[in-house]
Design goal:
Length: 634
Amino acid sequence: MKPLKKPKKHSDHANRHIFRNRLLIGGLLITLAFCGLFYHLFSLQIAHYDKYATLSDSNRIKLVPLPPTRGQIFDRNGEVLATNYPVYNIELIKQDIDRNHLDALLEDIHEIIPLTDDEISQFKRQLARSLPQDPVVLKSELTQEEIALLSVNLYRLNGVYINPEMVRIYPHKEVAVHAIGYVGRIDQKDMEEIEENHLTREYMNISHIGKRGSEKSFEDLLRGEAGYEKVETNSNGRIVRVIEEHPPTPGKDIYLTIDLRLQTLAEKVLGDYNGSVVAIDPNTGDILAFVSKPMYDPNLFVKGISQSDYNRLHTADSPFLNRVMQGRYPPGSVIKPQIALAGLSNDFITSSSTVNCNGSFQVPGNTHRFRDMGVHGPTNAHKAIERSCDVFFYSLAYEMGITSMTDFLTQFYLGRKTGIDLIGESPGVLPTPAYKQRTFKQAWYAGDSVTAGIGQSFWLTTPLQLAQMVSITAMRGETYVPHILHSHSHANSDERITKPLEPIEPMQVSSTKHWDTIIDSMVAVVHGNRGTARRINKGINYKIAGKTGTAQVKTIAQGERYNEKALDKRHRDHALFTAFAPADQPKIAISVVVENGGSGSGVAAPIAKEVIHAWLTDFREVSNSLQLNENAGE
């Protein structure tokens, strides 16, 4: 057996060579590692500093929009009609939550504080329509106990915040709701309108917008301008500190022309009737009272109306209809003074011209009888207005023709918009052959002109138009465009910037004496021995110039007579009254329309008298009882 060979031993020189190689390789690797680390440090800290600093700041620093406080609304005397109060809400931001686990998150919140089904469903609707960065309210007006319970659990509820908010409130509830309007949450339709008008930036983080009335019409004044905060947040998105702040600019406070005292009184005396009361200062165009009934509580819409409340308000009575400027009614006999003025100014009649009233009128060559409610005998313009003789105006309308009549009456803003500074005014309907052909595809007949002479036919007017008509009459053809905005002021400032008055184009009348004839006749309506509204002249030491009217709702067949008791309530005549006072120095002009009230003299006139008397006596003489009579006739 051969002996094993002993391994060769490296010499010291060889060992040192191996060690040097290993040391060289190790050093090279370490050098490369340091070079790579240095390169990355250089890239992060120097070459791409701006990029990574921006990315870091976007995670750590955020811009938080600050919504402005909406301006308040006051009446002409400084009484609050709409204001704001602070509340705390639970809000979630879409981009900060996991949509796949939303129901689980809501359940976690519900275990801490109760959530209703309405709150959850409304939140989900709003979340679906919101932008990623917008906060969406889940529950509003938290109690102190709820705030405390939620605060200690926020660390485990990512994307959930407790934020303060100023909430709109209408302290007088339904009072003047159609004048004031209301705000509501911005919906898809609002967003489309905002984008069309290039106002997206102005509405950043603003959740509510004016929906109706003054809130909508004066949105630009009330809204204000949003600000923002630059804040530092932690890894959970919670704010650690405020770095920079640009406070929002509050909206302007606005003052309306309405007087809350007169508004409340007018709503009270209209009682349970549907209808409208409009009072104007003819010297300025200021709207003093703006009543449309039925009414509703605007507070229901601020946080989002429930389905049950929404269904309850959608009735046949249409409480959302702004009857003052959107309700359309045949004016009936209240436009007889203005039709007489058209006849006088266009030389179809004189103040002494008479027509023999035997109770009916016939167009020559036609057997149809247009009836009157009485037999008045020989009648001139004064007597025809005082006693509301239909036959006189049938005859005048037939002689004058529809074109001469309507061309003149448009100067009273009948059949066209008055130009009020609220959005949504209806122009009404001017009875013309073109309108009838366009709407009904029918020719115009002489009988259409005849009935237009007593405010029927195809006439449709708004209560606002009737109030402006009587205001123009009071001022003998020269007054102002009706308006509801009186002035505005900046927040925390007593200086009020008054809206300039806008005069109407003066009426063209052939002689100023014709105004005397018409106004004297209207005074006789209230103060004459046979005036249709003579019942309201008791207990006053000034003259009221007025005109009663009824407007047919249901057509009565030839030969039949109007029988109120046989008709359904909704088919009874509307009751109307227009007036101004004092007749020699007018301070108030008014129109009253009482739906299905039956009698202008027995229902509408007493309501108007109460409003007029309260205004002229500075509310020192306000009646606590009002006697109305639906069967008193026109």
